[in-house]
Amino acid sequence: MNFQGYRRSNGKVGVRNHVLVIPSVVCSQGAAEAITRNVKGSVYLANVFGCAQVGADREQTKRTLVGFGTNPNVFAVLVVGNGCENLPAKEIAEAITPCGKRVEFIEIQEVGGTKKTIAQGKRIVKGMLADAAALPREPIPLSELILATECGGSDYTSGLASNPALGAASDLLVEAGGTVILSETTELIGAEHLLARRARTPEIGKQVLDLIAWWEKEAIATGQDIRGANPAPGNIAGGITTIEEKSLGCIYKGGTTTLEEVIAYAFPPTQKGLILMNTPGHDIDQLTGMMAGGAQIAVFTTGRGTPTGSPIAPVIKITGNAETYRKMKDNNDLSVSQVVQGKETVKEAGRRVFDEILAVASGKLTKAEKLGQRDFCIFKIGLNF
Q: How far apart are CA 95 and CA 89, in angstroms?
């Protein structure tokens, strides 16, 4: 089975064909945004980091920005820097270049101010867009697809309908040779042993258990109750009473196949099949990490509703709550509330989700894309100095 995608020079495949403007630092975000605002068809990242970061924190920001630049949904990249940051635009551009796509960088201080930077950036991006428009879609096997899975604004229907339906779709993609990323490590607490049992090796299973132990230790060290965030107030209002209940629903998104690998935040998978990426529970942090890891498309399940999208990847929103679908029809792409109503099986709903994934991968726009919802936030792991 195939979808219609864009084959890159390095063999990778995109489902979108974006020209991306990356501000290397928060100081250059305004210029980057202005370039894309004035050149229809380009997108930018709302990056607020890139300076006063050291060690692993700086490397994570760099890895994430580079990961977005190398993501196969991106045709070409312009990196915009200020000129004095400790994560220079040139360094980011040079790290993206080996993937084979066109990459350029400019710096506000070197060009001579914001207005000149915007003018030069517009010229560069217009040329990139002209080249991008000449690239046609072609048939691509499903084995080339990396699916990011996400749940947010969960309620009682999430664990009963939308997450199991996504899990059924995830199984179909894995059976076709594709890759599925499960994230939200903190939302596996209490269910981690179920995922560990499905690991390809005992070592991978231990990695799952060790991740949960680390997060629990970090939560205890802060002196705060993790239940202030998970389950969130909205989850509780939606009928979820404990973090274990939320986790048991969350884990369904990964389907039933073998867990092949555990990877760190914003790293690409090295295996096919079901993958666990270590991320926090923050929705945008998670999506950002998975897109930086190479995911070309996401399915986001929600009970209470969310407008979330991505700068470079389509995010399909599905809900198992009929009232949420009715109230937020401009945000939700698909309703699987029929499962809760007893009118549809989980497998039947999963097939509909799978078919939607194929349609969106082949070019169908999601509600979030139509609304211009382009959320971006990097998981921060250190102090600013």
A: 10
